[in-house]
Each structure stands twice: as structure tokens, then as C-alpha cells.
């Protein structure tokens, strides 16, 4: 009888505990790559260049409407300059795709995977993620804002951390006005 009472007590306790655990309500929302954009801006002593790169795939993960994760893949072969035309545009794009910069023949994609998401306001989140460029993965932090079915993020990336050394004052001396700054900006607008 004592065994039956103990078994019944355990069944009731574990039964209630199991039923009290709610199933996850995670929802993965695929990004509409044709409606989303990734813009870049890089700086040098004598000015700057800007352009775009195409998002190949991406998704944001929500739990009860709150952002909890995300992962993205960028097509590095789509890297273009939008501030130049003609011969100079072609030269810059070719150089950026070469091994001097992003080596897109060997590294055709770059990825970002969210590793930590912390709410910091009504529609805003502090995000840490693993960014992989040229096969090198480093953590990055940035803010993400969500409004309805749109998200925006702006981040600064230090290219030197990804072995993108051309014209970098961090690696070469006496570059003068040929110096290209290590940090570049990414502005991401997502539709999901």
C-alpha cells in the first residue's frame, strides 16, 4: 500500500510539473531577401566609398513576439560600389573582390549568427553575434530595432580582425593619404 501511495504521489507531482511546462512558442520568420538591403560604407584618409551586398538568406527568431535569435548569409560575389561609375567602379569592385580584400572566389559568402539577444527598449535589442568573413569568425555587437515586419541594424566592422589588410595603417607604415581605415559601416534593412 505504501508503494502504491508513493507511486501515486510521484505520478501526481511529475504529472503536474510536466503539464506546467509550456511548449516553446518560437517562430522563425524568413527574411524577404529581394525586399531587404545591406549597405556598406568604407573610409579612407581622402574620402569614402559606399555600396551594397546582397542578402542570400536570413531569418529572425521570435518567442511571444520578442526577438531571440537570427542567422544570415550574404553573397559576397554581389559586392558593388554605388558611388562610382564606369572604369573606376569596375576597378574598385574588382579590387574589393580580390584577395587583397574579401577574396570572394574562395569565400563567396559571409555569415552572421546571433548568439545573445537582450531587450533594451520597446522595439530595440542589444545583439551579440558571430560574424564570419573570409572563414574567420569573430563576435560583434550591435543594436536591432523591430517595427512590425521590418528590422534595422547598424554596425561597425573592423576589417583587420578578418585578415583584410590592404592599405591598413594597422599593418603597414608610411601609407600617408593612401591609408584605408579599418572600420567600415554596415546598414541593414530587413523585411520579413
From TrEMBL:
Residues 28-191 form the Lipid/polyisoprenoid-binding YceI-like domain. The keyword tRNA processing does not apply. SMART domains: YceI. Keywords: Signal. Residues 1-20 form the signal peptide. The keyword Signal applies. InterPro entries: Lipid/polyisoprenoid-bd_YceI (IPR007372), TTHA0802/YceI-like_sf (IPR036761). It comes from the Bacteria. Gene3D superfamilies: Lipid/polyisoprenoid-binding, YceI-like. This is YceI family protein. It comes from Maribacter aquimaris.
